[in-house]
Amino acid sequence: MAERSALDSSGIVPRSIQVGFVAAVIGLWFFLTLGGHVHLLLLPDPVKVWYAMVQLAVSGQLWAAAKVTLLSILKAYFTAVIPGLAIGFLVSRTLRSVQFFEPIFSGIFSVPLTLFFPLFIFFFGIGPNSKIAYGGLYAFFPVVITSIAAFANTDQLYIRAAQSMGASQLQLFRRVYFPSALPGILTGLRIATVVCVASVLGGETISSTNGVGHAIALQAELMETARMYAWVVYVVVAVVALNMALSVIETRTERK
Amino acid sequence: MPMSATQQRSQGQQFNRGRGAGDAVMDGKSKLAADAPVAIAVEHVTQRFDGRRPGQQVLALDDVSLEIRAGEFLCLLGPSGCGKSTLLNIIGGLNRQTSGTVRIGDTVVRGPTPSQVAFVFQESTLFPWYTVLENFKVSSDFQRSQASTWNDRAMSALRSVGMENFANHYPNQLSIGMKQRINLARGIFLDTPIILMDEPFAALDEQTRMVLGEDLSVLLARTGKTIVFVTHSLAEAVFLADRIVVMTARPGRIKATLTVEEPHPRSPDFMLAPRFSEIRNELFAILRDEIRQTVAAMREARDEGVVDG
Ligand SMILES: Nc1ncnc2c1ncn2[C@@H]1O[C@H](COP(=O)(O)OP(=O)(O)OP(=O)(O)O)[C@@H](O)[C@H]1O
Ligand SMILES: [Mg+2]
Questions:
Q1: Which residues in chain A are contacts of B144 at CB distance < 8 A?
Q2: DSSP label at A157?
Q3: B83 CB within 6 A, ligand 1
Q4: A162 — contact with chain B (CB < 8 Å)?
Q5: What pLDDT is attached to residue B99?
Q6: Which of B29, B77, B69 is nearest to B236 (CA)?
Q7: How do residues A220-246 score in pLDDT, each as one tens digit?
Q8: Which atom of ligand 1 is nearest to the CA of B199?
Q9: SS3 for B95?
């Protein structure tokens, strides 16, 4: 993919632009709050939010909530990825099944599953399980859709060549189908990560007893906006860090 | 299919030529080929494919019989779509024929025979996700070769095509010509008595093609492998082959067989010899009718808006 290099964020110039952007956002935040342009209840100043962040970390609330949320995201992720890849590979075996299943999965994925969130609460309760099931199901679709395409696009030429050299079914998978499909699979895994984070946090915000999303919703309800923003900043930092880690992994595999 | 008349004639022609050539041969190498055991026997092979619409069938090969001797270099020549690739794939066990039998040695072919047959295809089949050397390693694993010497053998195969300095490159870092050299090297590395080549040089320019052809002639003279080689180039066929089999337009049958008496390795001087152009002209005369027929059939199909069976 040629555009990848243009989007590569490791160069000096893009880096400084990114840092500049963050600085500008914080600067704007100071300007708006200290200049009195917005009501302090809607947006407290950064210093106040910083104190709230420190307080959350010191009191142990941060870790307690983050543990619940991170674990839910991780469980949702594997709930989505393992069946997603397995079913994606099986469906890709024949053209007929691709033609049958692909539109079904794409169709379901285009419906906002948020509509059915109350059902997850009915079935799995108000604890983390409902968020895991919801996130897992939601993220299953991008994984299965991308992996069907990725596996089905494996060049017949390579398959015939491998067969002519006596490759077993397992070797065919390990040496041909899987490496050939890997770039597409990684795209699916990346989308799944985003979907899992969004749906677990979103689910916690709507209805839960625990976790970061629950904390944010609770502080908002109590009009403790400084604390609410403190949580939001933690989430943003975590998501940015996750994204950077994923980019590193992707460029590593791409070099192969 | 009304086939008896033409079929008889074409097979008769093949027989006469074959025997005539055999009798005339005096030099060592060709005599050896005539005495050599049959490496590949194709017996009454017919191949039908389902067409785009149900009930519409394509007859790709019509009762083809052919014997290829051990150590022989056989070229398959014929108009586009006459079933050359199909025949090669059937011999290699990649396609299952509709009827007829193929034997490699004494064994009936029922699937790929990686210990006997290696393929070199028109397009590179090096896996782009592995380096050249890793590709060789994976091929050797596919073959379930126990030999721990794969690295040495891979390097010496690469050396024989002048590509030893590219062992750690990824295929996409190489030109098409370089990739085809390496595909050739892998065919040799696989160490099978038979190599099937389906237009391996078709994607190359004329000059590279000639050079690779020479290299191939030298390489194979050393190893004594049995080769079936599909090509569209008359010069390439005459330069490389011990025997040239010309096929008819679809449905593919054997139209004629020509022998080229010239020991391997062949030098480029052979291309300047009068005999070279004689054989080439003869080939061209045989092929011309078939190509006309193919073109006419294509026009007809286009005008009717269908592809016939
Ligand atoms: N899998 C297939 N399904 C249906 N028809 C096929 C299939 N493979 C080949 N054919 C048909 O069989 C005929 C012979 O094909 P083949 O590829 O063997 O020709 P060829 O002699 O190798 O041609 P070329 O010189 O262009 O490579 C063609 O008409 C082709 O359309
Ligand atoms: Mg072909």
A1: 166
A2: H
A3: yes
A4: yes
A5: 94
A6: B77
A7: 999 899 999 999 999 999 999 998 888
A8: 27
A9: coil
Q: Provide the edge-to-edge strand list for the sheet that holds B57-69.
A: B57-69, B38-50, B99-104, B107-108
Least confident of A72-76, A249-253, B229-233, B253-257: A249-253
Instruction: Out of B121, B129, B143, name the one closest to residue A161 (CB).
Output: B121
Q: What is the ipTM of this complex?
A: 0.81
Alpha carbon separation from B281 to B77, B84, B269 (Å, rounded): 14, 21, 18
The beta-strand segments (E) located in B183-308 are 194-198, 226-230, 243-247, 254-259
Cβ atoms < 10 Å from Cβ of A185: 23
Q: What is the dihedral of CA B275, B276, B282, B285, to 10 degrees?
A: -140
**C-alpha span between B73 and B50 (Å, rounded):** 32
Q: Which two tokens stand for residue B295?
A: 């073109």
Q: What is the pTM assigned to this prediction?
A: 0.81
Tell me whether residues B125 and A256 touch, CB distance under 8 A: no
CA of B170 to the centre of ligand 2 (A): 27
A182 touches chain B (CB under 8 A): yes
Confidence (pLDDT) at B290: 80
Are B114 and A182 inside 8 Å of each other by CB?
A: no
Highest mean pLDDT among B125-129, B145-149, B153-157: B125-129
Per-residue confidence at A10, pLDDT binned at 50, 70, 90? Answer: low
Burial class (CB in 10 A: 0-12, 13-18, 19+), A37: exposed
Asked if B119 lies within 8 A of A176 by C-beta distance, the reply is: no
**Distance of alpha carbon B57 from alpha carbon B68, whole angstroms:** 29
Choose which residue among B45, B46, B49 to substitute to test ligand 1 binding: the one with the highest number of ligand atoms within 8 A of its C-beta. B49
User: Residues spanned by CATH 3.40.50.300 within chain B?
Assistant: 3-107+194-199+211-304
Q: Which residue of B has its CA nearest to A175?
A: B138
A171, B142: Cβ pair inside 8 Å?
A: yes
Specify whether the CB–CB gap between B61 and B87 falls below 8 A.
yes
At B90 the pLDDT is 96
Angle at Cα B122 formed by Cα B120 and Cα B125, nearest 5°?
A: 60
Atom of ligand 1 nearest to the CA of B84: 21
Give domain B3-107+194-199+211-304's CATH number out of 3.50.50.60, 3.40.50.300, 3.40.50.1370, 3.30.70.3270: 3.40.50.300
Ligand nearest, relative to CA of residue B47:
1
Q: Tell me, in angstroms, the distance from the centre of ligand 1 to residue B152's CA.
A: 38
User: Cβ–Cβ of A160/B94 closer than 8 Å?
Assistant: yes
DSSP β-ladder status, B194-198 and B57-69: unpaired
Q: What is residue B57's three-state secondary structure? A: strand
The whole-angstrom separation of Cα B28 and Cα B13 is 25
- Report residue B224's pLDDT band, with 50, 70 and 90 as the boundaries: confident
